[in-house]
């Protein structure tokens, strides 16, 4: 075993080469796949939709907010990988009493790149991780001169209406995509339709996740904000902070 630090500043004892890994964060599950850890990953969540074939070959241990402790015990993990924001603090503490639990804490692209390198290190895939980081950096270098797209409000939930504030990872992605966040609040503030109208954003982005905005929602907001350009966007491209970032830059270019 060796002692490492996670992104929350916690000291975690992990095996030199973990052989039974559980991921409880979808974007980090996809990262583990792209790091070449097909044999080592034994458990994922019901929200881990990439890669699709892992949903059949890996044990589903629950969601990001609740897990089945009996299934996790049966899997006998030697490493669990989570995230401060996406996972519920209570069950993380409970799991940490029995297993090595490494936690990420991601607010910016730089944080995401650090996370990729750190997970590469603790899983024995440093070279693979370095390759992913380089690919992400190259992809975002190509879009650094994107024209400004104006002010934006990015919605993640509908009832109540919830948007992305200044301190969220998505906010940094909005900047990279050329948007100016119209909100001054942090994290994920609730908004009334009246507040949304007052903000008069140039663009309103309706995310495909976690709330699955559809055409009917687009029609509703278009009626309330007739002068605002309103689009449904792929939420994974804005919120997944693992290897999917390579695809995010190209997606932002096309918006």
What layout of secondary structure does this protein have?
Elements: E1 2-5, E2 11-14, E3 21-23, H1 26-34, E4 41-44, H2 54-57, E5 59-60, H3 69-75, E6 79-83, H4 89-96, E7 101-104, H5 109-122, H6 126-141, E8 150-158, E9 161-163, H7 169-176, E10 179-181, E11 190-191, H8 193-199, E12 203-207, H9 215-224, E13 229-233, H10 235-239, H11 245-253
Parallel strand pairs: 3-4, 3-6, 4-5, 6-7, 8-10, 8-12, 12-13
Antiparallel strand pairs: 1-2, 8-9, 9-11
Q: Characterize the main sheet.
A: 6 strands, mixed
Number of helices: 11
Structural class: alpha/beta
- Number of beta strands: 13
Portion of residues within helices: 25-40%
Could you give the distance between the termini? Answer: 46 Å
Which regions contain 5 or more consecutive residues with pLDDT less than 50? none
Could you describe the 3D structure shown?
By secondary structure, the chain is an alpha/beta fold. It contains 11 helices and 13 strands. The strands form 3 sheets. Strands 8, 9, 10, 11, 12 and 13 form a 6-stranded mixed β-sheet that branches. A 5-stranded parallel β-sheet has the order 5-4-3-6-7, with helices on both faces. A two-stranded antiparallel sheet has the order 1-2. The longest helix has 16 residues, at 126-141. It starts with a strand and ends with a helix.
């Amino acid at each position: 075993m060796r002692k490492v630090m996670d992104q929350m500043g916690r000291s975690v004892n992990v095996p030199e080469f973990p052989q039974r890994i559980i991921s409880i964060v979808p974007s980090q599950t996809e990262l583990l796949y792209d790091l070449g850890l097909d044999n080592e990953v034994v458990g994922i969540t019901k929200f881990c939709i990439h890669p699709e074939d892992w949903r059949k070959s890996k044990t589903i241990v629950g969601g990001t907010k609740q897990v089945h402790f009996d299934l996790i015990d049966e899997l006998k993990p030697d490493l669990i990988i989570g995230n401060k924001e996406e996972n519920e603090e209570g069950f993380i503490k409970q799991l940490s009493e029995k297993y090595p639990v490494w936690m990420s804490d991601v607010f910016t692209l730089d944080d995401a790149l650090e996370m990729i390198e750190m997970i590469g290190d603790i899983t024995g895939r440093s070279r693979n991780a370095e390759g992913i980081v380089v690919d992400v950096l190259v992809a975002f270098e190509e879009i650094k001169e994107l024209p400004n797209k104006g002010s934006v409000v990015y919605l993640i939930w509908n009832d109540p209406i919830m948007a992305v504030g200044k301190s969220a990872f998505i906010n940094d992605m909005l900047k990279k995509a050329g948007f100016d966040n119209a909100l001054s609040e942090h994290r994920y503030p609730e908004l009334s339709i009246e507040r949304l109208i007052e903000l008069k954003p140039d663009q309103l982005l309706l995310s495909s996740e976690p709330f699955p905005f559809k055409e009917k929602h687009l029609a509703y907001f278009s009626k309330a904000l007739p002068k605002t350009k309103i689009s449904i966007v792929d939420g994974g491209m804005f919120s997944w902070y693992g290897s999917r970032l390579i695809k995010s830059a190209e997606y932002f270019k096309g918006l």
